[in-house]
Amino acid sequence: MTVRDMLVRWLMLCGLLPLAACGGGSGRGWNGPVQCAPYARSVTGLRLSGAAAGWWRQSEGAYAHTRVPAPGEVLVFRSTRRLPDGHVSVVRQVRGSRAILVDQANWVPGRIDRGIPVVDVSQANDWSAVRVWWQPVHSMGKSVYPTYGFISRDLPDRPSPDA
């Protein structure tokens, strides 16, 4: 790899990483129509809308919440300075207790990526903090992102009428 190639990768990482946010309103963000929330909704059929970070609260009572990933579930990233609208990814495959592959839109701005590694780096192994593969530099990103957990299409546990 040449010095120029390394410089280009570094500039891409520094310049684009803060922009990897996902709004879900109109489906059009700063970079066009590819956004994480509309993409996740179209793939999973979840009836949720708005910014990705709001999906956790919006889904309470309508869908099950879990801290254990399964294929087809949606990982919901919290709102942060770097991700003001949060982010959502769809679990493609579970690779172990701390590793999954996801499909997602707009992590790399304007793109849909499939089979992207995400690792749980939380102390409690509860998926409350993750690191995400950063495709432009072909390595795991250094930033740690807080998450709420996973939304499942299953109905939430409800108390029985006898309880």
From TrEMBL:
InterPro entries: CHAP_dom, Papain-like_cys_pep_sf. Transmembrane segments: none annotated. Residues 11-131 form the Peptidase C51 domain. Signal peptide: none annotated. PROSITE patterns: CHAP (PS50911). It holds the Pfam family CHAP. This is CHAP domain-containing protein. It comes from Gluconacetobacter liquefaciens (Acetobacter liquefaciens).
